[in-house]
Amino acid sequence: MERWYQVTVNHRMTDSPSTEMSSNVVYAIVKAGGRQEKVSVGDILVVDRLDGKPGETVELQPVMLVDGEKVTTGGDVKATVTAEIVRAEKGPKINIMKFKNKTGYRRRQGYRSSLTRLKVTGIN
């Protein structure tokens, strides 16, 4: 029996080229949708479904903040990461097939995860 599984990959795109080599880099690690994502201003990321309409602003919980040479982690992070909801999306189709030989047992099920596309607007 051949099994088909498809894994949802979280895509992260940036509008500008990466500036991680300079000393004045500002980025944050945020907790979003059960995962942690590295974001900076202008990044677009796809997370699990969030309540809200396109154009609304949401705040993401920062776990770590890097501001040049200064790194802040844990409960010491006093910054807020704001993002704008771009649109609601659906993930790729996952086909689930169950089959048992010689018994006539077959079950087919499909699943698409609900996602939200966000654009990071500020790290304060």
UniProtKB/TrEMBL annotation:
GO biological process, one term: translation
GO molecular function annotation: rRNA binding; structural constituent of ribosome
Keywords on record: Ribonucleoprotein, Ribosomal protein, RNA-binding, rRNA-binding
Gene Ontology CC: cytoplasm; ribonucleoprotein complex; ribosome
Coiled coil ranges: none
Ribonucleoprotein listed as a keyword: yes
Superkingdom of source: Bacteria
Keyword Coiled coil: no
Family annotation (Pfam families): Ribosomal_L21p
Functional note: This protein binds to 23S rRNA in the presence of protein L20.
Family from the record: Belongs to the bacterial ribosomal protein bL21 family.
Assembly: Part of the 50S ribosomal subunit. Contacts protein L20.
Stated name of the protein: Large ribosomal subunit protein bL21
Organism for this UniProt entry: Bogoriella caseilytica
Gene for this chain: rplU
